[in-house]
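Make up an example, fold above all:
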Amino acid sequence: MSLPVEKKALHVPDLEELATVLEDGLKSYFASVSVSVVDCPDLSQQPFTLAAPGLCGSSRAVDVGGIPNIHPLPKLDKIYDMEKVAELADLPGAFMIGAGAGPYKHVGVNSELMPNLVASTAAKEGSNCTHDIRLDVDSGQPILEKCSSTECALMVNLYCSEGKPGKVLEVKASKRTGEADFVAAMREVMNERYGEKPVGLGGSFMIEQGKAWLHIMPDFCPTPITSIKENEEWLKFIEFDAPIICLSVFYSHDPGLDLRIEHTHCFSHHGAGGHYHYDTTPDDVVYRGYFHPAEWVYRVDRPTEKWVPTDK
C-alpha cells in the first residue's frame, strides 16, 4: 500500500489536568459529571468486548481518506487494509478502534464499520472483534454482524495503541442539559481550554441508559449527492435503545490536516449499531467512557478535493 502520509505531534496534557478540565467544563452540559484518572478496566471483557484490554502504549490517531471519497459520488477504488494502515502509522500490529465505511466487497453492500481489532495476521484467534451494520436490501431493516475482514472503504478514523493497561480517563455523565452530544461536549470543552493546541482523544464509551439517534448508510447512491439535505434524505436514521458500545476518535482542534474532527460508531449485543449523533432521552441518558490522549496524528491519503455541499 503506497499512500501519502502526513504526521503531526498532538498536545498531550497531563491526565490529571485534563480530568479537571473535562469535569469542570462538562458541568455546563450534564447535570451529573465525574471525570477521574483510573487504571483502565479490562475492556476486552463484557460489556465493552474490545479486542485488547487497554488503551495505552504508543498512542496515535489516524485519519484515512475522507468524505470526498463518498460524495458527490463514491470512489469505489478507495479500499484500505487496516493492517497496512497500522504500518503506515508506524505501529505494526496495533490495537485499533474507531469508525469507518465497511468493506463493501466483503459485506456485499455499503455499510457502517466499527473497527475493533489487533491489526496483525500473527495475532491470536479472536483478535478481530470488528462489527459492521448494513440495511437489508429487501426489508430495509438493520443487520449487525461480526466482520472478519481487515479492510474498509472510502474512509476510516482510528485510535491506535499497543492495547496495554495503564492510566486512562474515566468519564461519567448523566442527564444532559446542554445541546451538544457527549462527544461534541468534550471536544468543545477541550477547544475552549487548549485553543490551537490540538488535543486528540480516543476510546470507548457506553450509553448505559436511554436511547440514541444513529444513522446507517444505505447502499451507494447512483446519483450525485451535492447537499446536506440530499445526504440526510439518503441516510437511514434509527433510534436505538441502550446499552450501546461506542468507539470514538475526536480532536479539540484541526492542525491543518483536514481532519474529521469527531467520528463515533457504535455496536451492541442486541442488534443496535451505526454512526452516533446524539441521545434522544436527555433526562434519562447515562454515559460511561474510557479515553486516552493520542500523542500523534497521522493523515493518510488526504483527498485532494473537498466536498462542499451546495446548501452549506
User: Anything to note?
Assistant: The chain has a mean pLDDT of 96. The helical segments are 15-26, 82-88, 104-107, 182-194, 228-234. The chain has one domain: 5-300. The domain at 5-300 is CATH 3.30.1330.80 (60s Ribosomal Protein L30; Chain: A;).
